[in-house]
Amino acid sequence: MAKGEWKKSGTDDLPLTGRSECEVFDDGTNTFFWRAHTLTVLFILTCALVYVTLLEETPHDTAYNTKRGIVASILVFLCFGVTQAKDGPFSRPHPAYWRFWLCVSVVYELFLIFILFQTVHDGRQFMKYIDPKLGVPLPERDYGGNCLIYDPGHPADPFHNIWDKMDGFVPAHFLGWYIKTLMIRDWWMCMIISVMFEFLEYSLEHQLPNFSECWWDHWIMDVLVCNGLGIYCGMKTLGWLSMKPYQWQGLWNIPTYKGKIKRIAFQFTPYSWVKFEWRPASNLRRWLAVLGIIFMFLLAELNTFYLKFVLWMPPEHYLVLLRLVFFVNLGQQAWIVAAITVTEFLIVVKYDPTTIMLPIPFFVTQCWILGIVLILIWTLWRFFIRDITLRYKETRRRRQEGSSDRDRVPGHADGSNSATSGRSKLNGNMDTVRHRKS
Protein backbone atom coordinates (compact mmCIF):
# COMPACT_ATOMS: atom_id res chain seq x y z
CA MET A 1 0.00 0.00 0.00
CA ALA A 2 1.40 3.36 -1.01
CA LYS A 3 2.19 6.14 1.36
CA GLY A 4 -0.81 8.26 2.26
CA GLU A 5 -3.42 5.60 1.44
CA TRP A 6 -6.23 4.78 3.82
CA LYS A 7 -6.69 1.38 5.37
CA LYS A 8 -9.80 0.08 7.08
CA SER A 9 -9.16 -0.71 10.74
CA GLY A 10 -12.27 -1.95 12.51
CA THR A 11 -14.66 0.97 12.65
CA ASP A 12 -11.99 3.62 12.13
CA ASP A 13 -10.26 4.82 8.98
CA LEU A 14 -6.57 5.32 9.74
CA PRO A 15 -4.09 7.04 7.39
CA LEU A 16 -1.05 4.92 6.67
CA THR A 17 2.10 6.99 6.43
CA GLY A 18 5.70 6.02 5.94
CA ARG A 19 6.04 5.82 9.72
CA SER A 20 3.47 3.02 10.20
CA GLU A 21 4.97 -0.21 11.42
CA CYS A 22 1.96 -2.43 12.04
CA GLU A 23 -1.66 -3.14 11.22
CA VAL A 24 -4.35 -2.53 13.80
CA PHE A 25 -7.65 -4.39 13.92
CA ASP A 26 -10.33 -3.17 16.31
CA ASP A 27 -13.86 -4.52 16.57
CA GLY A 28 -15.02 -1.09 17.74
CA THR A 29 -16.67 -2.29 20.93
CA ASN A 30 -17.47 0.69 23.16
CA THR A 31 -17.72 -0.84 26.63
CA PHE A 32 -18.56 0.76 29.96
CA PHE A 33 -14.86 1.24 30.54
CA TRP A 34 -14.56 3.60 27.55
CA ARG A 35 -17.75 5.61 27.94
CA ALA A 36 -17.75 9.10 29.41
CA HIS A 37 -18.97 9.31 33.03
CA THR A 38 -18.98 13.06 33.60
CA LEU A 39 -22.41 13.12 35.29
CA THR A 40 -21.51 10.21 37.53
CA VAL A 41 -18.33 11.94 38.71
CA LEU A 42 -20.24 15.19 39.26
CA PHE A 43 -22.90 13.38 41.29
CA ILE A 44 -20.33 11.63 43.53
CA LEU A 45 -18.40 14.88 44.01
CA THR A 46 -21.58 16.75 44.95
CA CYS A 47 -22.57 14.05 47.43
CA ALA A 48 -19.15 14.25 49.10
CA LEU A 49 -19.39 18.04 49.44
CA VAL A 50 -22.94 17.80 50.81
CA TYR A 51 -21.77 15.25 53.39
CA VAL A 52 -18.91 17.47 54.54
CA THR A 53 -21.19 20.51 54.72
CA LEU A 54 -24.27 19.07 56.45
CA LEU A 55 -23.28 15.87 58.23
CA GLU A 56 -19.70 16.36 59.34
CA GLU A 57 -18.67 18.68 62.14
CA THR A 58 -15.72 20.89 61.23
CA PRO A 59 -12.81 20.37 63.69
CA HIS A 60 -11.45 23.39 65.55
CA ASP A 61 -7.94 22.83 64.23
CA THR A 62 -6.72 25.50 61.83
CA ALA A 63 -3.71 23.55 60.57
CA TYR A 64 -5.79 20.40 59.97
CA ASN A 65 -8.56 22.30 58.21
CA THR A 66 -6.01 24.11 56.03
CA LYS A 67 -4.43 20.83 54.93
CA ARG A 68 -7.78 19.21 54.28
CA GLY A 69 -9.03 22.22 52.35
CA ILE A 70 -5.96 22.22 50.10
CA VAL A 71 -6.28 18.47 49.47
CA ALA A 72 -10.00 18.81 48.72
CA SER A 73 -9.31 21.66 46.26
CA ILE A 74 -6.71 19.55 44.47
CA LEU A 75 -9.10 16.57 44.28
CA VAL A 76 -11.87 18.73 42.80
CA PHE A 77 -9.46 20.08 40.20
CA LEU A 78 -8.36 16.52 39.34
CA CYS A 79 -11.99 15.43 38.94
CA PHE A 80 -12.58 18.33 36.59
CA GLY A 81 -9.44 17.61 34.56
CA VAL A 82 -10.00 13.87 34.24
CA THR A 83 -13.52 14.37 32.90
CA GLN A 84 -13.21 17.64 30.97
CA ALA A 85 -9.59 18.08 29.82
CA LYS A 86 -8.61 17.53 26.21
CA ASP A 87 -7.41 14.06 25.23
CA GLY A 88 -3.74 13.63 24.46
CA PRO A 89 -2.05 11.42 21.86
CA PHE A 90 -2.14 8.29 24.06
CA SER A 91 -5.17 6.02 24.44
CA ARG A 92 -3.66 3.24 26.57
CA PRO A 93 -4.34 2.23 29.24
CA HIS A 94 -7.06 4.88 29.09
CA PRO A 95 -7.23 8.52 27.94
CA ALA A 96 -8.44 9.51 31.41
CA TYR A 97 -5.17 8.18 32.83
CA TRP A 98 -3.15 10.68 30.81
CA ARG A 99 -5.63 13.49 31.58
CA PHE A 100 -5.11 12.73 35.27
CA TRP A 101 -1.33 13.08 35.00
CA LEU A 102 -1.72 16.29 33.03
CA CYS A 103 -3.71 17.75 35.92
CA VAL A 104 -1.18 16.43 38.45
CA SER A 105 1.58 18.15 36.49
CA VAL A 106 -0.33 21.44 36.65
CA VAL A 107 -0.76 21.05 40.43
CA TYR A 108 2.94 20.29 40.79
CA GLU A 109 3.90 23.35 38.75
CA LEU A 110 1.66 25.53 40.93
CA PHE A 111 3.30 24.06 44.03
CA LEU A 112 6.73 24.89 42.61
CA ILE A 113 5.62 28.44 41.87
CA PHE A 114 4.41 28.76 45.48
CA ILE A 115 7.76 27.49 46.82
CA LEU A 116 9.61 29.86 44.49
CA PHE A 117 7.85 32.89 46.00
CA GLN A 118 8.75 31.96 49.60
CA THR A 119 11.85 32.86 51.53
CA VAL A 120 14.44 30.11 51.82
CA HIS A 121 13.60 29.46 55.47
CA ASP A 122 9.82 29.47 54.95
CA GLY A 123 10.08 27.25 51.87
CA ARG A 124 12.10 24.62 53.72
CA GLN A 125 9.86 24.75 56.76
CA PHE A 126 6.76 24.49 54.56
CA MET A 127 7.90 20.98 53.67
CA LYS A 128 7.03 20.03 57.26
CA TYR A 129 3.36 20.34 56.33
CA ILE A 130 3.92 17.49 53.87
CA ASP A 131 6.14 15.41 56.15
CA PRO A 132 7.05 16.51 59.71
CA LYS A 133 10.43 14.81 59.33
CA LEU A 134 11.46 17.30 56.65
CA GLY A 135 12.82 20.80 57.17
CA VAL A 136 15.98 19.54 58.85
CA PRO A 137 19.44 19.84 57.23
CA LEU A 138 20.78 16.43 56.24
CA PRO A 139 24.38 15.38 55.60
CA GLU A 140 25.17 14.40 52.04
CA ARG A 141 26.58 10.95 51.43
CA ASP A 142 29.95 10.78 49.67
CA TYR A 143 30.08 7.87 47.25
CA GLY A 144 33.81 8.31 46.59
CA GLY A 145 36.54 7.62 49.09
CA ASN A 146 38.03 4.15 48.92
CA CYS A 147 37.68 3.08 45.27
CA LEU A 148 39.41 -0.31 45.47
CA ILE A 149 37.32 -3.01 43.84
CA TYR A 150 39.20 -5.63 45.84
CA ASP A 151 40.30 -4.32 49.23
CA PRO A 152 42.90 -6.64 50.85
CA GLY A 153 42.69 -4.60 54.04
CA HIS A 154 39.29 -6.22 54.76
CA PRO A 155 39.94 -9.97 54.50
CA ALA A 156 36.47 -10.75 55.84
CA ASP A 157 34.81 -8.97 52.89
CA PRO A 158 37.33 -7.63 50.37
CA PHE A 159 34.51 -6.59 47.98
CA HIS A 160 32.79 -4.41 50.59
CA ASN A 161 33.17 -1.30 48.40
CA ILE A 162 30.99 -2.88 45.73
CA TRP A 163 28.33 -4.01 48.19
CA ASP A 164 28.24 -0.53 49.73
CA LYS A 165 27.26 0.91 46.35
CA MET A 166 24.52 -1.67 45.81
CA ASP A 167 21.67 0.36 47.29
CA GLY A 168 18.16 1.09 46.13
CA PHE A 169 19.41 3.40 43.40
CA VAL A 170 20.76 0.46 41.37
CA PRO A 171 17.32 -0.94 40.41
CA ALA A 172 16.05 2.64 40.17
CA HIS A 173 18.73 3.44 37.57
CA PHE A 174 17.88 0.31 35.59
CA LEU A 175 14.12 0.89 35.67
CA GLY A 176 14.52 4.59 34.92
CA TRP A 177 16.59 3.99 31.80
CA TYR A 178 14.32 1.19 30.69
CA ILE A 179 11.38 3.60 30.72
CA LYS A 180 13.41 6.41 29.14
CA THR A 181 14.32 4.08 26.29
CA LEU A 182 10.63 3.34 25.71
CA MET A 183 10.05 7.10 25.44
CA ILE A 184 13.12 8.13 23.41
CA ARG A 185 13.18 5.01 21.16
CA ASP A 186 16.72 5.54 19.98
CA TRP A 187 19.84 3.73 21.22
CA TRP A 188 22.26 6.52 20.34
CA MET A 189 20.20 9.23 22.02
CA CYS A 190 19.90 7.21 25.22
CA MET A 191 23.61 6.43 25.35
CA ILE A 192 24.56 10.07 24.69
CA ILE A 193 22.34 11.27 27.56
CA SER A 194 23.64 8.53 29.85
CA VAL A 195 27.31 9.31 29.17
CA MET A 196 26.77 13.08 29.26
CA PHE A 197 25.22 12.86 32.72
CA GLU A 198 28.28 11.02 34.03
CA PHE A 199 30.44 13.85 32.67
CA LEU A 200 28.14 16.29 34.48
CA GLU A 201 28.66 14.39 37.71
CA TYR A 202 32.43 14.64 37.22
CA SER A 203 32.09 18.35 36.53
CA LEU A 204 29.83 19.18 39.49
CA GLU A 205 31.21 16.95 42.23
CA HIS A 206 32.74 20.05 43.83
CA GLN A 207 29.19 21.33 44.41
CA LEU A 208 27.35 18.19 45.51
CA PRO A 209 29.31 15.60 47.50
CA ASN A 210 27.20 12.65 46.32
CA PHE A 211 28.36 13.35 42.75
CA SER A 212 31.80 12.17 43.87
CA GLU A 213 31.88 8.53 42.84
CA CYS A 214 34.54 5.98 42.01
CA TRP A 215 35.50 5.60 38.37
CA TRP A 216 34.07 2.08 38.22
CA ASP A 217 30.86 3.36 39.82
CA HIS A 218 30.54 5.92 37.01
CA TRP A 219 31.41 3.82 33.99
CA ILE A 220 30.84 0.18 34.99
CA MET A 221 27.93 0.19 37.44
CA ASP A 222 26.09 3.21 36.00
CA VAL A 223 26.81 3.41 32.26
CA LEU A 224 27.37 -0.27 31.46
CA VAL A 225 25.40 -2.25 34.03
CA CYS A 226 22.43 -0.18 35.21
CA ASN A 227 21.91 2.28 32.35
CA GLY A 228 23.23 0.01 29.61
CA LEU A 229 21.16 -2.98 30.67
CA GLY A 230 18.07 -0.81 30.99
CA ILE A 231 18.62 0.61 27.50
CA TYR A 232 19.22 -2.89 26.08
CA CYS A 233 16.03 -4.30 27.63
CA GLY A 234 14.12 -1.23 26.48
CA MET A 235 15.28 -1.64 22.88
CA LYS A 236 14.34 -5.34 22.98
CA THR A 237 10.88 -4.40 24.24
CA LEU A 238 10.54 -1.84 21.45
CA GLY A 239 11.51 -4.49 18.91
CA TRP A 240 8.84 -6.83 20.25
CA LEU A 241 6.19 -4.08 20.23
CA SER A 242 7.03 -3.21 16.62
CA MET A 243 6.50 -6.80 15.44
CA LYS A 244 3.46 -7.93 17.45
CA PRO A 245 0.01 -7.77 15.82
CA TYR A 246 -2.49 -5.36 17.34
CA GLN A 247 -5.91 -6.99 17.41
CA TRP A 248 -8.33 -5.39 19.85
CA GLN A 249 -11.59 -6.99 20.98
CA GLY A 250 -14.10 -5.97 23.57
CA LEU A 251 -13.54 -7.81 26.84
CA TRP A 252 -16.98 -9.43 26.78
CA ASN A 253 -16.49 -10.57 23.18
CA ILE A 254 -13.63 -12.87 24.22
CA PRO A 255 -14.99 -16.32 25.13
CA THR A 256 -12.22 -17.69 27.40
CA TYR A 257 -11.03 -16.44 30.78
CA LYS A 258 -7.43 -16.76 29.62
CA GLY A 259 -8.20 -14.52 26.67
CA LYS A 260 -9.87 -11.98 28.96
CA ILE A 261 -6.85 -11.86 31.29
CA LYS A 262 -4.52 -11.50 28.30
CA ARG A 263 -6.68 -8.69 26.94
CA ILE A 264 -6.52 -6.85 30.27
CA ALA A 265 -2.73 -7.19 30.34
CA PHE A 266 -2.38 -5.88 26.78
CA GLN A 267 -4.45 -2.84 27.73
CA PHE A 268 -1.20 -1.49 29.18
CA THR A 269 0.62 -1.76 25.85
CA PRO A 270 0.33 0.77 22.99
CA TYR A 271 -2.81 0.80 20.84
CA SER A 272 -0.59 0.70 17.75
CA TRP A 273 3.08 0.98 16.92
CA VAL A 274 4.64 3.94 15.17
CA LYS A 275 8.36 3.99 14.51
CA PHE A 276 10.03 7.34 14.98
CA GLU A 277 13.43 8.28 13.61
CA TRP A 278 15.24 11.24 15.14
CA ARG A 279 17.61 11.96 12.18
CA PRO A 280 19.25 14.88 14.01
CA ALA A 281 21.55 15.79 11.12
CA SER A 282 18.79 16.02 8.51
CA ASN A 283 18.40 19.81 8.89
CA LEU A 284 19.44 22.63 11.19
CA ARG A 285 16.07 23.01 12.88
CA ARG A 286 15.91 19.33 13.82
CA TRP A 287 19.53 19.40 15.01
CA LEU A 288 18.83 22.34 17.33
CA ALA A 289 15.64 20.66 18.57
CA VAL A 290 17.54 17.46 19.42
CA LEU A 291 20.19 19.48 21.28
CA GLY A 292 17.42 21.23 23.21
CA ILE A 293 15.78 17.92 24.14
CA ILE A 294 19.11 16.51 25.37
CA PHE A 295 19.69 19.68 27.40
CA MET A 296 16.25 19.47 29.05
CA PHE A 297 16.75 15.77 29.86
CA LEU A 298 20.07 16.51 31.55
CA LEU A 299 18.67 19.54 33.41
CA ALA A 300 15.74 17.48 34.72
CA GLU A 301 18.20 14.81 35.92
CA LEU A 302 20.33 17.42 37.69
CA ASN A 303 17.25 18.96 39.32
CA THR A 304 16.60 15.62 41.04
CA PHE A 305 19.83 15.95 43.02
CA TYR A 306 19.86 19.70 43.53
CA LEU A 307 16.22 19.94 44.68
CA LYS A 308 16.64 17.40 47.46
CA PHE A 309 19.84 19.20 48.42
CA VAL A 310 18.32 22.69 48.75
CA LEU A 311 14.97 21.51 50.21
CA TRP A 312 16.67 19.13 52.69
CA MET A 313 15.06 15.91 51.49
CA PRO A 314 16.91 12.61 52.05
CA PRO A 315 17.60 10.65 48.86
CA GLU A 316 15.39 7.75 49.96
CA HIS A 317 12.38 9.97 50.78
CA TYR A 318 9.14 9.00 49.05
CA LEU A 319 8.76 12.49 47.53
CA VAL A 320 11.93 11.95 45.48
CA LEU A 321 10.51 8.70 44.11
CA LEU A 322 7.11 10.28 43.47
CA ARG A 323 8.74 13.02 41.42
CA LEU A 324 10.44 10.42 39.21
CA VAL A 325 7.18 8.50 38.77
CA PHE A 326 5.46 11.78 37.96
CA PHE A 327 7.97 12.61 35.20
CA VAL A 328 7.62 9.14 33.69
CA ASN A 329 3.86 9.64 33.27
CA LEU A 330 4.01 13.06 31.63
CA GLY A 331 3.95 11.54 28.16
CA GLN A 332 4.14 14.10 25.35
CA GLN A 333 3.26 17.15 27.47
CA ALA A 334 6.33 19.06 26.33
CA TRP A 335 5.14 22.52 27.40
CA ILE A 336 4.43 21.64 31.02
CA VAL A 337 7.58 19.50 31.23
CA ALA A 338 9.71 22.44 30.12
CA ALA A 339 7.92 24.79 32.55
CA ILE A 340 8.42 22.40 35.48
CA THR A 341 12.09 21.82 34.67
CA VAL A 342 12.83 25.54 34.43
CA THR A 343 10.90 26.31 37.63
CA GLU A 344 12.77 23.61 39.54
CA PHE A 345 16.07 25.05 38.39
CA LEU A 346 15.01 28.56 39.46
CA ILE A 347 14.17 27.23 42.93
CA VAL A 348 17.65 25.73 43.16
CA VAL A 349 19.25 29.01 42.09
CA LYS A 350 17.22 31.05 44.60
CA TYR A 351 17.56 28.69 47.57
CA ASP A 352 21.29 28.04 47.33
CA PRO A 353 23.09 30.45 44.98
CA THR A 354 26.33 29.90 46.88
CA THR A 355 26.54 26.25 45.84
CA ILE A 356 25.52 27.00 42.26
CA MET A 357 28.14 29.73 41.91
CA LEU A 358 31.05 27.69 43.22
CA PRO A 359 33.79 28.07 40.59
CA ILE A 360 34.23 25.10 38.30
CA PRO A 361 37.77 23.69 38.23
CA PHE A 362 39.84 25.11 35.40
CA PHE A 363 40.49 21.81 33.63
CA VAL A 364 36.75 21.01 33.73
CA THR A 365 35.99 24.41 32.19
CA GLN A 366 38.56 23.75 29.46
CA CYS A 367 36.93 20.40 28.64
CA TRP A 368 33.44 21.91 28.36
CA ILE A 369 34.68 24.84 26.27
CA LEU A 370 36.42 22.40 23.94
CA GLY A 371 33.26 20.30 23.63
CA ILE A 372 31.05 23.32 22.91
CA VAL A 373 33.52 24.65 20.33
CA LEU A 374 33.61 21.27 18.59
CA ILE A 375 29.81 21.16 18.45
CA LEU A 376 29.70 24.69 17.02
CA ILE A 377 32.36 23.88 14.42
CA TRP A 378 30.54 20.71 13.36
CA THR A 379 27.23 22.62 13.15
CA LEU A 380 28.77 25.33 10.97
CA TRP A 381 30.41 22.76 8.73
CA ARG A 382 27.38 20.48 8.41
CA PHE A 383 24.64 23.03 7.86
CA PHE A 384 26.48 26.01 6.34
CA ILE A 385 29.93 25.34 4.89
CA ARG A 386 29.06 21.88 3.58
CA ASP A 387 25.81 23.05 2.02
CA ILE A 388 27.51 26.06 0.39
CA THR A 389 30.22 23.79 -0.97
CA LEU A 390 27.69 21.32 -2.35
CA ARG A 391 25.66 24.08 -3.98
CA TYR A 392 28.83 25.55 -5.52
CA LYS A 393 29.85 22.16 -6.91
CA GLU A 394 26.35 21.56 -8.28
CA THR A 395 26.29 25.01 -9.95
CA ARG A 396 29.73 24.42 -11.43
CA ARG A 397 28.71 21.01 -12.74
CA ARG A 398 25.62 22.45 -14.43
CA ARG A 399 27.67 25.22 -16.03
CA GLN A 400 30.14 22.68 -17.36
CA GLU A 401 27.31 20.58 -18.80
CA GLY A 402 25.76 23.68 -20.40
CA SER A 403 29.07 24.77 -21.98
CA SER A 404 29.71 21.26 -23.32
CA ASP A 405 26.25 21.23 -24.93
CA ARG A 406 26.96 24.57 -26.63
CA ASP A 407 30.34 23.28 -27.88
CA ARG A 408 28.64 20.38 -29.66
CA VAL A 409 26.30 22.62 -31.70
CA PRO A 410 28.85 23.96 -34.37
CA GLY A 411 30.34 20.50 -34.89
CA HIS A 412 29.47 17.99 -37.71
CA ALA A 413 29.64 14.82 -35.70
CA ASP A 414 25.91 14.15 -35.97
CA GLY A 415 25.44 15.63 -39.49
CA SER A 416 22.79 18.04 -38.28
CA ASN A 417 24.54 21.10 -39.79
CA SER A 418 25.04 19.35 -43.15
CA ALA A 419 21.39 18.45 -43.32
CA THR A 420 20.41 21.97 -42.48
CA SER A 421 22.77 23.33 -45.20
CA GLY A 422 21.35 20.90 -47.75
CA ARG A 423 17.78 21.90 -46.99
CA SER A 424 18.77 25.58 -47.31
CA LYS A 425 20.28 24.99 -50.77
CA LEU A 426 17.22 23.03 -51.87
CA ASN A 427 14.91 25.80 -50.74
CA GLY A 428 17.08 28.31 -52.61
CA ASN A 429 16.88 26.30 -55.90
CA MET A 430 13.08 25.97 -55.60
CA ASP A 431 12.74 29.73 -55.17
CA THR A 432 14.78 30.26 -58.35
CA VAL A 433 12.55 27.91 -60.39
CA ARG A 434 9.39 29.66 -59.14
CA HIS A 435 10.91 33.04 -60.15
CA ARG A 436 11.65 31.85 -63.73
CA LYS A 437 8.12 30.45 -64.20
CA SER A 438 6.64 33.72 -63.08
- Total helix count? 15
Determine the mean pLDDT: 80
Q: Roughly what fraction of the amino acids lie in strands? A: under 5%
Largest sheet: 2 strands, antiparallel
Quaternary state of the chains: single chain
Computed CA radius of gyration, to the nearest angstrom: 33 Å
Query: How helical, in percent, are the residues?
Result: 55-70%
**DSSP strand tally:** 4
**H/E element order:** EEEHHHHHHHHEHHHHHHH
Low-confidence stretches: 1-20, 412-427, 432-438
- Class from secondary-structure proportions: mainly alpha
The strand line-up of the biggest sheet is 1-2
N- and C-termini, Cα separation = 72 Å
So what's the overall shape? globular
Organism: Labeo rohita
EC number: 2.7.8.29
Main location: endoplasmic reticulum
Subcellular location: Endoplasmic reticulum membrane
